[in-house]
Amino acid sequence: MMRFIFSIIMLLTVLMGDSDAELTIKKKVDNRSKIAIADGSTSIDNSTSRKVFSLFLNDLKLSGNFSADSRYYTAEYSSDVLPTEVKSNEYTLKYQLLNTSGASLSVILIQNSNGTKLFQKSYSIGAFNKYPFLVHKAVSDINRILGYGSIDWMNRLVLFTRYTASRQSEIILSDYTFTYKYPIIRSGLNLFPKWSDKSQSSFYYTAMNGARPVLYRYHLNNGTKDMITSSDGMLVCSDVSSNGSKLLLTMAPNGQPDIYEYDVATKSASRLTDFGGIDVSGQYMSGEKQIVFVSNRLGYPNIFKKYLTSPSVSPVVSRGRNNNSCDAFGNKIVYSSRESSERFRGNTFNIYLNSTSGTTPLTNSGDNQFPRFSSDGNVVLYVKQQSGKSLVGYVNIDTKESSIFNVGSKVQSIDW
Amino acid sequence: MKKLFLIATVILVAFFWTGCSQKAPELNTGANISDVPSLGSDGVNVGEHGEISNADALRAKMSPSGGLPNDGSYNNSSGGFQSVYFGFGDFSIVNDMQKAIDKNIQTLKSYNGNIKVEGNCDEFGTDEFNYALGLKRAKAVKDALVAQGIAAERFTIVSLGESAPACTNSTADECYAQNRRVDLHKQ
């Protein structure tokens, strides 16, 4: 009886608590390098200084390789003297940001035990409000210099669509923390941006402004666009092959949404799925020999996979009654799964990682969807819906370190 | 342990007591149109019908899967057409949705032009799946009209996903239900 009552209390505590805390397992905590951050900027307003400090702090944390001192230190950039308090850390990262016809950032990495300068570099960019990209580049360089491998995913540009009014949206370019945001395409209903190659110099998107949806490729360097194809009903570019030559499209030429592989050079499409219900969100996996996709062929949205050359389809996920988004990297799959059955509100969707070592949760509360692997497969981006707004979270798969950022509006789709 | 038992009992009693103490909402039946004083012959003709005055009564009229009643009380279409409302995650024409199809057949008897059929969704789920769901809804409406003799080539179907909500100002069931619909317009 007591065990039953205790279980009820625990259940109520979980239900009423509804904590939004992210899953943060401090794995390998003892192996991380302790680092302090010291601001040597003198001509930047206090608000911007704090933002820059927060960017450094978050980048170091999310790398999974640093235990960053969260105290805000200042130090004269050109002096070798450091605050006494930083000495409890192994390293100090000292920086100076200047606003001189753009943004200029200088960084020095100092080994606190003997004052040795391990790394020194300056960065610049044409517009001051693009300074977040300089911070991310500096941190990824420091990570590499110290032998921790690549975290270049930090330098990736993020593209997302947000609705602005009924049948109106805009496609925004941002850094991964959404500190820098710039609208690339405005006016009308333009959706589903997808980077067209690794260099991030152009992207595909769907324009819904005529009788039929049209897929365009937009070139960032000159602002021009090429029409790729169009289809009745719906048209989405869900994935691009690693060399950019093939696209996975969801098209509905007869009102029936199925997944097609489109050859960019020959402008021809071959149908990969043939089902009377809904097949969407195709993603390449396993060296682009297979695709993983979302289908309602069991009566509810779930994750399936198939070889490109075979008609047979097999389910990937056996849990959850609504698994409606997925991504793949190599043989790893991430997907969202509904954990509750509220018909109209308050459902919990969590992100799961499916790999050869089993299935593990990457989030533990809230409405989390739209998982997207980083370019190196080590970090997963996801969209958390909360009170009609979107937050974007990142989870380091190995360390489980996570961060979450407020986008400030509702995200329709996202790519990085 | 006694203290724990006492706390648990208080919580459980409070929880269930709070849940049971809500008074059942009542329909506003006090003033129907016949109670309103005549407005005389000043050219103002107030035609009102089908008003639902509380959410519980509306829920009772919704389909088991959360579709709005297809009796003309809601409409987002133009040109004399009637929107068709769907349940949560559904894209089949069932139950009273046939009433809306019949209404649209009547309208098409006096219109020989082309028709645009737009499928819409609520905000639940990811947008790519929702665009496909909206499309399946639009196709279901088109197929139902074609089955009654309307030429298929007169239709253009498109999905607007969750980009064109009819209701955005509430998180109530009936607000979301207004967005699970197919609208028809003359082209």
Descriptive overview:
The complex is a heterodimer of chains A (416) and B (187). With 416 residues, chain A is mainly beta. Chain A has three helices and 30 strands. Chain A has helices at 2-17, 46-63, 131-145; strands spanning 33-39, 66-68, 73-74, 91-99, 103-111, 116-125, 158-165, 168-174, 181-185, 190-195, 202-207, 214-219, 225-230, 235-240, 246-251, 258-263, 268-271, 279-285, 290-295, 302-307, 313-315, 325-329, 332-338, 349-355, 358-361, 367-373, 379-386, 389-396, 402-406, 411-415. In chain A, helix 2 (46-63) packs parallel to helix 3. Chain B is of the alpha+beta class. Chain B contains five helices and four strands, in the order H-H-E-H-E-H-E-H-E. Chain B has helices at residues 2-20, 55-61, 97-108, 127-146, 173-179; strands spanning 84-85, 115-119, 155-159, 181-186. Chain B has a four-stranded mixed sheet with strand order 1-4-2-3. Chain B starts with a helix and ends with a strand. The interface between A and B is large, with 47 and 40 residues.
Summarize model confidence as the mean pLDDT of chain A.
89
- Characterize the largest beta sheet of chain A: strand count, sense, and whether it forms a barrel: 6 strands, mixed
Q: Determine the number of helices of chain A (DSSP H or I, runs of at least 4 residues).
A: 3
CA-based shape of chain A: globular
Shape of chain B: globular
Percent of residues in β-strands of chain A? 35-45%
Q: Spans of chain B of 5+ residues with little confidence (pLDDT < 50)?
A: 10-43
Features:
heterodimer; A: four-stranded antiparallel sheet; 3 helices; 30 strands; globular; disordered N terminus; B: 187 residues; alpha+beta; 4 strands
Q: Quick recap of the structure?
A:
Chain A contains three helices and 30 strands. Chain A has 416 residues and is mainly beta.
